[in-house]
Amino acid sequence: MSFLSSTNTTVNASPIPSGVRKEDAVALLHDHEFFLLCDPHHASHKTLPQPPETEKEPASVEVARKHFKLPATLKPHERPGPVVKIYEVVDHMPNPVWSSNVVSREEFVDHDDGMWVRIHSPMGVVMETHWSVREKNGALELVEDVLINCSRLVMGIVKGQVENNWRGIHKQIIDKLVKDSTPA
């Protein structure tokens, strides 16, 4: 790592109201379409094809682990289809001087307690976020464990975006969980 590079970790957690089942909360995290739309800067997204070297049938966790350099502690679901789902995401980033669209490549991996996401953005920004639903003191909570790697020059901006957005993203997820768990 160069002296111009920086790393930051942040953990954000929100309580999930009683009446929501853990399996429903995890299933909602596995709904990537819904999750992508929770980002307040989301402009558009599309699914990208798998790299040729990962298109083995059935999809192999070992191949995905090697090609995508997944963390050793990540235990992806083994099921039909790709282990890593890849998206191109366009976010509209407002700025007081100019606004811009930022195009990122995002890799999603579902696991038993939630999902893991790696975002590759311009200027060498890489964020890895482990989303999970865990039990704490007899209740459920939504946990977002974020690792940011980027230049020291942009770390403040990236950290600021995470800090400004996490509460709203958690609220949208929890609101949908409550709505879906309420009897009609």
From TrEMBL:
Taking every annotated instance into account, which residue ranges of this chain make up the domain DUF7053? 6-177
Please give the InterPro entries that the UniProt record associates with this protein: DUF7053
A family per Pfam: DUF7053
User: Which protein are we looking at?
Assistant: DUF7053 domain-containing protein
This protein's species is: Xylaria grammica
